[in-house]
Amino acid sequence: MSKYGESVKVLQLQLNFDVATAYVGEQISRALGGKDYSVTTAYLRGSATRGLGKPLEKTHYFRYSKQSLKGVFRWCSIWKLYRYIKKNKFSIVIVHRFKAIHMLLLLNRFLKIPVVCIVHGIGDYDQKYRQNIIRSLVTDKCSFVAVSNEVKKYLINLSCGFSKVNTHVITNAIDIESIHQEQFSRNDAREALGISKGVFVFGAIGRLVPVKGYEYLIKAMAMLGAVDQDVQLVIIGDGRLRTALKSLIEKSGLEKKIRLVGWKEQAAKYVRAFDVFVISSLSEGMPLALMEAMSGEVPAIASDIPSLEVLIEGAGGWVFQSANESELASVMRNVLRMSGGELNEAGEQAYDYLFQNHSLEGFCRSYKALVSSQLAPNS
Hints:
By secondary structure, the chain is of the alpha/beta class. It has 2 domains: 8-173 and 359-375, Rossmann fold; 176-357, Glycogen Phosphorylase B (Rossmann fold, 3-Layer(aba) Sandwich). Helices cover 42% and strands 17% of the residues. The strands form 2 sheets. It has a 7-stranded parallel sheet with strand order 3-2-1-4-5-6-7, with helices on both faces. A 6-stranded parallel sheet has the order 10-9-8-11-12-13, sandwiched between helices. Strand 8 (200-205), helix 8 and strand 9 form a beta-alpha-beta unit. Helix 1 (19-31) packs across helix 14 (360-375), helix 2 crosses helix 3 (98-111) and helix 3 (98-111) packs parallel to helix 4 (128-137). The longest helix has 18 residues, at 340-357.
C-alpha cells in the first residue's frame, strides 16, 4: 500500500507470450493480488495467450514487431515504453528475459524506480555482450531473481554485476492442487492422445528445440529395443526440430513406437497418460513440465544437469548422464522391469516431495517479501 493509501502499481513486463514464462508471470501476479498491489502484465510482442486458464484482469499488448526491437528502431519502442510507465505511474517493474530486461535497465536511468529482473535459465548470460550490459547498467535500484540455486550460482560466477546482495532465489512453483484436479484420468488422457490402455508409455513435454535433448531420447528408445516391446514414447510439443526428429524416428524404424503429438493447450492435463515422465534436457532453469508431471503422481527420469538432479533425486526419480543415450536406455530398461506397485509408490513420493518443497504458498510469500523490500524507502 502506498503512503496515500492507494494500491502500489506494479508492471510485469515480458518480451512475448510463451507458456512457461507466462505461467510464472501469472503466479507472480496472483501472489501480489489484493488491496496492496495492482498488477498489470504487458507483452512487448504478440497478443496470443494460449495455454493458460482464465486470463489476468489487467493486460497490455504493445504489439511491437521484431524490426521495432532492433537497431535504431528500438529507441522508438523504448521511448513508447517509457511514456507508458510514466503515464500509468508504476512504482516497480518486474521483468522477464534479457531483451525486456535490457530495455528496462536502459530506461531506469531516467525512471529511477525498483526493477526486479527474473532469470529463468543457466546460459542466458553466456554472451559477453549481455554480461557487459549488466556490468554497465545495473544500479542499486536493480535486483535479480534466479529460479533455482544453480541459476544463482551461474549468475554470480560470471562476475559481471550479479552479486549475493542483489540476486535472490525464488524457485518456480505450481498450483499443485488446482492442476491435480484439472488433469485427465489415465484412461481419458490416453484416449485423448490416441494411446491404447495396455502399452507402457514414456512421456515428455516441451518445445522441439536442441536444448531439450530429444535426439538422445529417441536414440535411447532405439537402443532399448522398443521395436520388439509393448512400449511407446509420446512427446507433447512443437518446434523447429520437428522435421529433423521425425526423420530420426523413421531412420530408427520407430514410427509406430514414437509419436510427436504436437502442441497441446494446457499440456499438464495429459500427464497421467504416461507411466514415466522423461526430461532429457541439456540445460534447464526450473522445469515447470517436470513439476506438472510430478503433480500427477508420475515418476520421472531426468538428465543429471544441476537444476534437475536436485529436484529428481528429492522426488525419488532416476537420473542419467546428460546427452548419453546409452545410459538413458539403461535407466529406461531398469524402469521397465519395475512392478506397477513400485512405480505407483515412486509417483506418490514425487507428489509428496513437490507438495512439501514447491508449493504456491511459499512462492507467493517470497515475491511479496521481495517486492516490499525493494519498495522500502532505504532499499
